[in-house]
Amino acid sequence: MIDLRQAGVDDAAELSRIQVDSWQAYESIFSPAYMAQHNTFERRFLYWMNVLLRGDGRTYLIEDDGQSIGYVTISYPRDEDLPSGTLELTSLYIRTAETGKGYGSYVLRRLFTSVKTAGYDRITLWVLKDNRRAIAFYRHFGFTPDGFEMSLPIQGPILETRMSREL
């Protein structure tokens, strides 16, 4: 049975393992040097400890029969130009071995329902412009680019595009 469980500080190691594993999808986008420096358990663990201690957004472990297979984070938007009633999907990562099994679809459908029930009417997200698989996935669920892009300050021009969806 698939369940979403709010992550706490005790889950930092598990979130780190999932992120390091799922970031394999970026090996064709980021340089090997960048990946070697940034996609390590130690770096991800420090990141997650900070996020969970600060209480930035809400992160949920995605579990199937008690096994952690991914996570999702939703928060207030970082962008000031968005109308009230908007939340930001800041992460949705599934372990590499579990992709393509419907977990992401399940999580998004559940997220749309709970966010709408809570009174929100829009969700945004930022996605790497070269991550065609993720863009296709989000388009399938009604997200469309809203015209905003930003360049990440890493290893040259890596662009992100913002997508949004009304509920």
Explain what this protein looks like in three dimensions.
- The chain is an alpha+beta fold and 167 residues long.
- Helix content is 34%, strand content 34%.
- The chain has five helices and seven strands.
- A seven-stranded mixed sheet has the order 1-2-3-4-5-7-6, with helices on both faces.
- Helix 1 crosses helix 3.
- The longest helix is centred in the middle third of the chain and has 15 residues.
- 26% of the residues are buried.
- The mean pLDDT is 95.
Could you name the key traits of this structure?
167 residues, seven-stranded mixed sheet
Question: How many strand units?
Answer: 7
Major sheet attributes: 7 strands, mixed
Strand content: 25-35%
- Mean pLDDT level: 95
Shape: globular
Helix content: 25-40%
The spatial strand order of the largest sheet comes to: 1-2-3-4-5-7-6
Q: Give the topology string: H per helix, E per strand.
A: EHHHEEEHEHEE
* DSSP summary: helix tally: 5
User: Helix/strand/pairing class, anyone?
Assistant: alpha+beta
Distance between the termini: 26 Å
List the uncertain runs.
none
Q: What's the gyration radius in Å?
A: 16 Å
